[in-house]
Amino acid sequence: MSTATMTAPVRGKSDGRIGPRANLRHIGALVRRNALQIRYEPFAMFDALAMPIVFALLFTYVFGGAMTGGNRSEYVNYFIPGLMAMGGLNIAMSIGSGVNDDFNKGVMDRFRTLPIARSSVLIAKLVVECGRMLLSTIILLIMGFIMGFELKTGPLELLAAVALAVLFGSSLTWIFMLLGMSLPTPQAVSGMGFLVIMPLQFGSSIFAPTATMPDWLQSFTEYNPLSRLADAARALTSGHGAIAEPVTVTLSWTVAITVLVAPLAVRKFRDKTT
User: Transmembrane ranges (predicted)?
Assistant: First the structure.
């Protein structure tokens, strides 16, 4: 759907003159546009569809036996909830490169002429990315059940774990959208993204328990939000361990990142499209 079909081009309107109902219509139209882009570019879904399967197979059959003394089923039950925490981070990183590419190709210049709230463009991207995170998590869980993952609680606890992972992933999306608007090229965004996600991923409890790590690394993992999310997902799906504390910490990180970074991203977008 062309962006011109949303409304006639009008210059000079500010975000404050656009009512909530109109803003929701604009977000809905932009969500549909972004979804249609995925439909016509199926490779854009590669990270959401294939990466959960690749990671589940790779880590379980390459490292799982060594970490659990040959008991891969035990590692599957440890690793799959942890991988739920990592999926949102990988998908969030890809949106930064996408936003940067949109600016370089002039796509964002088309939005500049439309009387829409600048935030609606970013919120629409956020909605679509949350949908991709949800799909990726569902595929991961299906793969996990095939490989022997056991849900020892119930469907409500599983839904809570999935929702927590998607919520946290949505907050990370704001960070990478801001990076995408701040760095000059998609390659620079990807490079900076890897510098951010690699320490967070491997300096956490996603892949292995932290008890054998050096003291300084254990201190880092204790404050790493991915560790708290992985611990929360494990507690919700296994029924073992504290639930309230890691869930509360994860939600606190989610709110803090969103409150701090989302306004910066919207302001950066407004400055670049003015």
Answer: 43-63, 75-99, 120-146, 158-179, 191-211, 247-266
Burial class from Cβ neighbours inside 10 Å (0-12, 13-18, 19+) for residue 76 reads buried
**Rounded alpha-carbon distances, angstroms, from residue 1 to 4, 120, 249, 259:** 8, 16, 40, 31
C-alpha 125/C-alpha 131 separation (Å) is 10
Q: Which two tokens stand for residue 153?
A: 């609680």
Q: Is the pLDDT of residue 159 over 70?
A: yes
Q: CB–CB of 99/180 below 8 Å? A: yes
pLDDT computed for residue 52 by the predictor: 86
| 261 Rama class: left (phi>0) / alpha (psi -120 to 50) / beta | alpha
Contact 49, 136 (CB under 8 A): yes
Which amino acid is it at 175?
A: I
Residue type, 203: G
Query: In 115-142, which positions are buried (b, 16+ CB within 10 angstroms) versus exposed (e)?
Result: bbbbbbbbbbbbbbbbbbbbbbbebbbe
Q: What is the DSSP-derived secondary structure letter of residue 140?
A: H
Say if residue 187 is exposed, middle or buried (CB neighbours under 10 Å; 0-12, 13-18, 19+).
exposed
Is 15:119 a contact under the CB 8 Å cutoff?
yes
DSSP 8-state symbol, 64? I
Residues in CB range of 121: below 8 A, 6 or more apart: 30, 108, 111, 269
